[in-house]
Amino acid sequence: MALLTAAARLFGAKNASCLVLAARHASASSTNLKDILADLIPKEQARIKTFRQQHGKTVVGQITVDMMYGGMRGMKGLVYETSVLDPDEGIRFRGYSIPECQKLLPKAKGGEEPLPEGLFWLLVTGQIPTEEQVSWLSKEWAKRAALPSHVVTMLDNFPTNLHPMSQLSAAITALNSESNFARAYAEGINRTKYWELIYEDCMDLIAKLPCVAAKIYRNLYREGSSIGAIDSKLDWSHNFTNMLGYTDAQFTELMRLYLTIHSDHEGGNVSAHTSHLVGSALSDPYLSFAAAMNGLAGPLHGLANQEVLVWLTQLQKEVGKDVSDEKLRDYIWNTLNSGRVVPGYGHAVLRKTDPRYTCQREFALKHLPHDSMFKLVAQLYKIVPNVLLEQGKAKNPWPNVDAHSGVLLQYYGMTEMNYYTVLFGVSRALGVLAQLIWSRALGFPLERPKSMSTDGLMKFVDSKSGNHVGLSALSSPITLSHAHRHFLARPVDFLYLLHFKLRVLWTYPSWSLLETSFSRLYMPLSK
To answer: What is this protein's function per UniProt (predicted)?
Structure first.
């Protein structure tokens, strides 16, 4: 409690609800996460129930036609507890920024980066954990990590040309055989107990993911060598890097940072929303997370850091490793003028440098300041934003997380770019599964938004504007289907149709609209 009070004094009331919640229920004496949740959940249920009773009819925002056609960008339509993305500040995990998490979350002995276990505890409870609580979580995950034999056999028999993300998704789906929730649901468990079984599945899945991911890596890139055994004395990231076959302590530190900062990015991104959506059907965490990984595998979501490395490698190949600012500027302009983008720059929500980029840059400045690829990334950071501002098209000219992560992985010897999204997936489990526990604890219902067709949307807009059929009539040229040809075969019917069109046009005095309508009316008749 003292730590939370100090944090509140230090950081102010930036996220009052989160800090109040944490302070109200802080339970530093307990190291069992499930026990703490059992205390938190009823009080949070009551808080939300009261809030909905008082403000359930409050309008949160408006939806525009552009939002519906534009991927629902900016549309407020989800409740997602674990993180919030501010366009100007970047991501906040339960109210804490990345620098704050780096400062407050427990670290490994002798380490400088936060342990992902601590972040998961924060995402689930809203509380900064103690070292004892993080140690308990590390041991708990180590205890749950073993893979069932059928999953190991399946991974060992995948063809080597099957993408690592396809293997990851398939293995997670196969782990569904171990689902506590699926078994309990089939036996008729009371819905008030859903969260308890979801919690067990999420803990099991997070524990097993490094083993699955390491097995995929060894099979594809290390001739199928053994991943070895889990060491219960090591933290989650350290066990993961050991199983991958990396023994450099700095790489383990990088992995702790990487798994922490990629864990969550509020609820609207593809992987988080997919997990939330599929989970709302009461699919167990294995099925929900496997679906999320299929979304993450898409090139517009999880492939970006790979695209950055490809672009950087091509840049070095064409202009050399030591390139002047002027030549680099010309190369960037050539990229833009050819209709391409500079990968790693811009973000759908952020309007500043991604703080996840910044903390990776700080890691590189500390551990690999003379690496040629890092120096190129740093040089681009000085030049690209100004070029994008000059071009005038980018809403956000600043770098995002993907502009840096691949360079760090390559420096420590992980050059297999196809595998990078698997690391992203292991990390993302922390955020989306923490939210999945709360979704079931709070009784969130099946997600079922209303969809509309283009014609239906046009009619709706017509009715809102008071012009009824006008816009739809003008937007629909006459086509000569067989039925139309039969209808227009009688002159009297053609005159009736023309009369109807003119009545519609009477509400639109603009001659340009009149001319457009007549051209649409007569054009098919001339064919």
So the answer is: Key enzyme of the Krebs tricarboxylic acid cycle which catalyzes the synthesis of citrate from acetyl coenzyme A and oxaloacetate.
Q: Are residues 260 and 366 in the same domain?
A: no
Task: Let me know how many helices (H) and strands (E) the chain has, helices first.
Answer: 26, 3
At residue 498, the pLDDT reads: 53
Q: Do 167 and 281 belong together in one domain?
A: yes
Residue 27: predicted pLDDT: 52
Q: Which domain holds residue 376?
A: 304-411
The residue whose two tokens read 């949160």 is 60
* 301, 367, 371, 462: the active-site residue: 301
Please list the rounded mean pLDDT of every run of 10 residues in the chain (527 residues).
41 43 52 96 98 97 95 92 89 96 97 98 98 98 98 98 98 99 98 98 99 99 95 98 98 98 95 98 99 95 88 90 91 92 81 90 97 95 92 83 93 96 98 98 96 96 73 47 47 51 46 44 40
Shared domain check, 76 and 36? yes
* pLDDT at 245 (0 to 100): 98
Q: Let me know if 264 is a catalytic residue.
A: no
Q: Which of 96, 128, 160 is where one domain is finished?
A: 128
**pLDDT value of residue 464:** 86
- 500/515 Cα distance (integer angstroms): 16
DSSP notation for 156-196: HTS-TTS-HHHHHHHHHHHGGGG-HHHHHHHTT--GGGHHH
**Of the residues 25, 262, 273, 347, which is catalytic?**
347
User: Could you tell me how many residues make up the chain?
Assistant: 527
State yes or no: is 347 an active-site residue.
yes
Catalytic residue (choose from 262, 264, 402, 404): 402
The answer to whether residue 102 sits within a structural domain is yes
Would you call 402 a catalytic residue per the annotation?
Answer: yes
Q: What is the pLDDT of residue 76?
A: 93
Last residue of a domain, one of 105, 128, 151: 128
Asked whether residue 449 is domain-assigned, the answer is no
Phi, psi at 207, each rounded to 5°: -65, -35
Ramachandran sector of residue 456 (left: φ over 0; alpha: ψ -120 to 50; beta: rest): alpha
CB 251 within 8 Å of CB 412: yes
Order of strands, edge to edge, in the sheet holding 83-86?
83-86, 90-93, 96-97
259 and 380, same domain (yes or no) = no
Residue 134 lies in a domain: no
Q: 276 and 199, same structural domain?
A: yes
